[in-house]
Amino acid sequence: MKKAENIIVGISIGDLNGIGSEVILKTFEDNRMLELCTPVIFANVKILSFIKKQLNLTAQLHGIDKIEQIVIGKINVLNIWREGVDINFGTNDETVGKYAIKSFTAATKALKENEIDVLVTAPINKYNIQSEEFKFPGHTDYLNQELDGNALMFMIQDNLRVGLLTDHVPVNEVAKHLNEKLIIQKIETIKKSLIQDFGINKPRIAVLALNPHAGDNGVIGKEDDELLKPTIKKLFEKGTLVFGPYAADGFFGSNQYEKYDAVIATYHDQGLIPFKTLSFGNGVNYTAGLSKIRTSPDHGTAYEIAGNGIADYNSFKEAVYAAIDIYNSRNEYKEISSNPLKTKEKQL
Question: What pTM did the predictor assign?
């Protein structure tokens, strides 16, 4: 297994007019982080030096032109472009969006080619990244195309883990997207992730209902009785410890979520509102289900505070920690899976 500081954490720069650069630089100002991993920021060292100066930060940057020039224990900045970029903090700028995607696609390529071990993405603006070359709602959809597996948005913070059956889908279309195949795929993806990425041998998974009061026996919608319940029952009978559907309104307030290793919400805000209420500033967005590891902070570009030097970097730091932990957990799982005797030793 690699030494901790040799775990190469690739970082896409995100929207240069947002708080991404600030939270990245603040995270690695603490030299103890460089004992855990070696960062490689996909950007331009002159641009980052300019931002560092603007924000009065002290992180020491090491510019490189090829991935082979990485220096262990330094904050490496891989020059993905040479030209200057106009930085106007707090501004939605299509040109800046293009550089965010240039960074992200280069980092994804490095991840695919095993030049970096994990990827941590700084926030992008989903509107200004759109172009003829990049027509994806965000990071997750592009990674799902480029990497093996089935991507699933998995929000994590300590023992609170929330996955989604549907993510960036308009609320009035959620029911149309739900079907047995999708539900089974998402639940199985979360089950596999809990086992290999978090070391939970027999995970317990709760599913939230689509409708208020889980449909009240069909009075407020039939999807829970006709789709979710039978699908959950089918999976449970095959050995997956999945339960529900539970009425979503009181599930988190009553601390019922604490009985489960993960909770699956049927749509974006049903899962993310309670998650961010309970963990804001410490939560991590993890793309589960793929052959490679990608995490990101649980916030956006925060244009309203960009350039003021007041951004909280904790969520980004937690995203780095999570990526390293999952990387190590996966390696341990592979080792145990290839050597059944170690599994027995662990159980004894």
Answer: 0.91
